[in-house]
Design goal:
The chain is an alpha+beta fold. 25% of the residues lie in helices and 15% in strands. The protein has helices at residues 19-28, 40-50, 70-73, 93-98, 106-113, and strands at 3-7, 14-18, 65-67, 131-135, 144-148.
């Protein structure tokens, strides 16, 4: 299994990609379209020859650098970075040593523990019922409006 470290020279963003993530990035360039499970050597060669065409996930600039894989640089046997399910940043190795099944970084977990979660439902300011987003019934351009789910429903 191959593992590569991609880095952006503009914003110093870095990510460790396994074979599946590398194949996904190469498919965005129009490569490997027909092969569901391409050979490891082909993926590695295509990555080496097309890394300058890949875009940074953070600043969207084209021209990433291919650094030595994380396995070659460290004595640890961490094969892939685990990313936070909310902010998509790598979870620090120290946190994963303590909490091996952690899905969120410290900052995002703190926000969720305090109850300030971004996915919290909206409530009607008039009656306190849940508010849902619906497609408006007007003709023309599709628009979305918030509707109160209370009985009777309030006009927002």
């Amino acid at each position: 299994m191959i593992s590569s470290l991609l880095s952006c020279p503009n914003c110093n963003w870095q990510t460790t990609c396994g074979e599946e993530q590398i194949a996904t990035r190469l498919r965005t360039l129009g490569l490997l379209r027909r092969a569901p499970h391409p050979p490891e050597e082909l993926v590695a060669e295509l990555l080496r020859s097309n890394v300058s065409r890949l875009a940074c996930d953070q600043c969207a600039s084209v021209g990433l650098l291919l650094l030595a894989p994380a396995d070659d640089r460290d004595d640890d046997d961490w094969q892939q970075a685990v990313v936070c399910e909310v902010c998509r940043k790598p979870i620090p190795r120290e946190r994963l040593e303590i909490f091996p099944k952690a899905k969120r970084c410290v900052a995002c977990q703190g926000v969720a523990d305090r109850g300030e979660d971004q996915d919290a439902p909206d409530f009607c300011p008039k009656c306190g019922a849940l508010v849902e987003l619906r497609v408006s019934q007007a003709s023309g351009i599709t628009r979305y409006k918030q509707f109160c789910t209370g009985t009777p429903s309030c006009r927002l």
